[in-house]
Fold this protein.
Amino acid sequence: MTARIEGLVTSGQFTLDGGSWDVDNNVWLVGDDQEVIVIDAAHDADAIAAAVGGRRLAGIVCTHAHNDHVGAAPALAEATGAMIWLHPEDLPLWKQTHPDRDPDAWLADGQVIDVAGTELRVLHTPGHAPGAVCLHAPALATVFTGDTLFQGGPGATGRSYSHFPTIIDSLRDRLLTLPPETKVLTGHGDATTIGTEAPHLQEWIQRGH
């Protein structure tokens, strides 16, 4: 029995470099009836806790530390006792939102997170943020890409701590090499597949975003 994927959308603001934008975020839950992990605790700790329900929250995994993806993480951790996991290279971004609360544990490239008998492998995919990660669950034929890969192209690289050539390297070397049938569940917006996006890499390089 493999884990199942559940999703909810929460709404709030993304703030960086002195600007704020209204955003809807995808929050993903992976698990079974007993335990679950949350990928990106965005905006609304109460809504996410309600989705977890009576299950054990085995971890809060942050794909990166932009405020719209981690804003609710400390409150959710406090409510559930779960640990917050972040890649260490995103600590400077985390500190912008949570200066007095560190993550509980560090993510590392190649690390395997096991939930409900299903493995999720951490892929360090910098570019949108220095510590951006994706989570590949081969048994579910799914990769959770945060803001690294969307339907139609890479995540934004026009603000602090981001770099377009780096995200292109991450896409080429880490994500677009996954099986083409792999479902891509993103940090915002609609799902896609690796096979749908992979043919367009050169177009993205040429347009520069």
Q: What stands out?
A: The first helix runs from residue 45 to 52.
